[in-house]
Amino acid sequence: MTAGEVVFSVTGLEFSYSQAPSNMKSVLQAGWLLTVAVGNIIVLIIAEAAQLPDKWAEYILFASLLVLVCIIFAIMAYFYVYTDPSKIEAQFNQNDPDEKRKKSLEMARKDSFGYNKEKRPSSDSSSDSSSDEEEKKQTKI
């Protein structure tokens, strides 16, 4: 069962990652891990609540629950419509065409601020007023 869970986990993570838009990939990864955690809690609750005397009976219980989940997944897969990730990315780029321009301007500002900060002369008592003026100019940028 552990080998099956490993194979299922890798496949599910890859599928959810490939079907998500770029700005939702981390959310889907977190959702996947959350459902794994909830599933482990469900197994814990069922194992403690069932109080089955034999291990084979517990195995049959979990195997039947697994078959039920497989049937549910088969139904969901039948109605699933595959989405092409490149089309999703194209939609996001079409909805926000100047997003890249905003990001590049923001990065340019950050780079120039970091560059000016590195090139700033060491401050001593005679240049305190000039360094204050430089800081004001940089904050305005």
Describe this structure in words.
The chain crosses the membrane at residues 27-47, 59-81. Its main location: membrane. One of its GO terms (cellular component) is membrane. It is found in: Membrane. Residues 91-141 are annotated as: Disordered. The protein is mainly α and 141 residues long. It folds into two domains: 2-88, no CATH class; 98-120 and 132-141. The protein contains six helices and no strands. Helix 1 (2-19) packs antiparallel against helix 2. It is elongated. The N and C termini lie far apart (59 Å).
Q: Treating each run of at least 4 consecutive H or I residues as one helix, how many helices?
A: 6
Overall pLDDT, averaged? 75
**Low-confidence blocks of residues:** 123-127
Distance between the termini: 59 Å
What's the structural blueprint in terms of helices and strands?
Layout: H1 2-19, H2 25-50, H3 55-79, H4 85-95, H5 99-119, H6 128-140
Protein name: Solute carrier family 15 member 1
Membrane topology: Multi-pass membrane protein
Keywords: Membrane, Transmembrane, Transmembrane helix
